[in-house]
Amino acid sequence: xxxxxxxxxxxxxxxxxxxxxxxxxxxxxxxxxxxxxxxxxxxxxxxxxxxxxxxxxxxxxxxxxxxxxxxxxxxxxxxxxxxxxxxxxxxxxxxxxxxxxxxxxxxxxxxxxxxxxxxxxxxxxxxxxxxxxxxxxxxxxxxxxxxxxxxxxxxxxxxxxxxxxxxxxxxxxxxxxxxxxxxxxxxxxxxxxxxxxxxxxxxxxxxxxxxxxxxxxxxxxxxxxxxxxxxxxxxxxxxxxxxxxxxxxxxxxxxxxxxxxxxxxxxxxxxxxxxxxxxxxxxxxxxxxxxxxxxx
Length: 296
Prior knowledge:
Largest sheet: 3 strands, antiparallel
Structural class: mainly alpha
């Protein structure tokens, strides 16, 4: 089993070019699956797996109170694995072929209001190298809708100051060109000309955003800083990097941007993923109607 999983992971890495976080999720799901089959059914070969075993594993996850979303993701990983086995003629049938993917309720994304975004952007008020970096990162995140992994992995060559754009490397190693507003460009230029030069230590690095040791800042490091600034800004909501991505998309649509353009800027491969933001607008309109219409 574990050898077959290794072959599948190699396929996902080399031929599919999946992102590191996606690969890690596949690996966790399939390791748990293999361990379950070996522990409860003594299965060590993929040929011995039947539909019943897959259903028993999903039931086991439910008994362990794994969330519906995580169970759906696990089934997706397992389905991909069995399809790979069939494709490579390592098995004669797909044990997941007749199993339906459970429908998962899609919660509306959390957002910041325009006022909350303004307060957050003003929170890094000092002129230290770290404050310059953080202000540039927050401005850039809201101006472009980047994923936090895309933000922290930006390199100097990705910044196109002359045309006001950045090159983002998204899921599946897909590149896209994203426009950047004047204010974010101004903060970015200030950081490049001052803060980054002070943060950079001996040696060279092409990464754009550096920590106080001169190393690339991590997702966790930026998340921690963002929470700190949200508290300083007096924002009561839970603030994390993806909230700014959601706010970016929703505020664009509210101001007349078309859905296809927002899809391209976010790097969504399927426009149905972007359409969640139209539902957000509908929900806000309903709340406005309820609160302000005489018969709401």
